[in-house]
Amino acid sequence: MSEKAIGVFDSGLGGLTAVKELIKVLPQENIIYFGDTARVPYGNRSRETISKYAEQDAGFLLSKGVKMIIAACGTVSSNAVGLADTLTVPFTGVIVPTAAAAANATRNGKIGVIGTSATVNSGAYKKEILLRNDKIKVYQQDCPLFVSLVESGFISENDDIVKLVVERYLSAMKKEGIDTLILGCTHFPIISKAISNYLGKDVTLIDSGRETALYAANLLGNNHILNTANKMGTCRYYVSDTVESFRNTAEIFLDKSVEGEVSHISIEQVEL
């Protein structure tokens, strides 16, 4: 048994959807989350910059004594490909578990992938899917406005702006007849109802946060470091920009208050 925390990081807020799923799957585990809100977004950065930031983010979590690290960010997972080799604890991103789930879920062999521009341009999801079944057709679309909508509070499935943007991004995939869609950015599950309403009930949405949480549980078990204490775990949140804006939006992602659980750190503490 290990009561050390699971470390989770993201460029900002999106990784909180993975935290929410971790709490459901592993309620006894302690979690430390770092959101690099001072340097968000990562999605329009170069691969070199994303890799550097990811190493710094992971280093901050290691300084907190975590037993595992999760890059709950599609952009990092698809671009900082060498990060795992630099770490001394078990690690996972979101690409491998999510791609595996999508490949298993598709019935007609047509899978859509949506994410940030950096994630889509990397081709990481497509590569992982085709490794499992090279006959699958993969359709990709970057959806940068989805992140802005979520972080601005435009999340209702009935909001006309949300519906318009969903249609603009996903109309081509709908015409292609995909039956499975990877929500390849951890912001996207927040507007999954609007996405599902547009694509129809026959299209399976694959939540990267959910699949990563399940994968993390198996990884912890295989390494014999699950927390088996008979009590609810704790969550601590660290951000590199203002606490107030993070706290307000975090409550949308988590459906609960994080009052008293969020701390600010200077970016210099991360860049060490």
What does the model show?
The protein is 46% helix and 16% strand. It is of the alpha/beta class. The model has no long low-confidence stretch (mean pLDDT 94). The two termini are 31 Å apart. The protein is built from 12 helices and 10 strands. Strands 4-3-1-2-9-10 form a 6-stranded parallel sheet, with helices on both faces. A 4-stranded parallel sheet has the order 6-5-7-8, sandwiched between helices. It has 2 domains: 6-93 and 210-271, Rossmann fold; 95-208, Rossmann fold (3-Layer(aba) Sandwich), CATH 3.40.50.
Architecture blueprint of SSEs:
Layout: E1 6-10, H1 16-25, E2 31-35, H2 47-63, E3 68-71, H3 74-79, E4 91-92, H4 95-105, E5 110-115, H5 117-122, H6 124-132, E6 137-142, H7 144-151, H8 160-176, E7 180-183, H9 192-199, E8 204-207, H10 208-222, E9 235-239, H11 243-254, E10 262-264, H12 267-271
Parallel strand pairs: 1-2, 1-3, 2-9, 3-4, 5-6, 5-7, 7-8, 9-10
Find the count of extended strands (DSSP E, 2+ residues). Answer: 10
Strand content: 15-25%
Envelope shape:
globular
Biggest sheet layout: 6 strands, parallel
What portion of residues is helical?
A: 40-55%
Number of helices: 12
| CATH third-tier fold name of the largest domain | Rossmann fold
Structural class by sheet pairing and helices: alpha/beta
CATH architecture of the largest domain: 3-Layer(aba) Sandwich
How far apart are the termini?
31 Å
Order of helices and strands: EHEHEHEHEHHEHHEHEHEHEH
Major sheet: arrangement of strands = 4-3-1-2-9-10
> If you compute it from the alpha carbons, what radius of gyration comes out, rounded to the nearest whole angstrom?
18 Å
Number of domains: 2
Q: Residue-averaged pLDDT, rounded?
A: 94
- Uncertain spans: none
CATH level-1 class of the largest domain: Alpha Beta
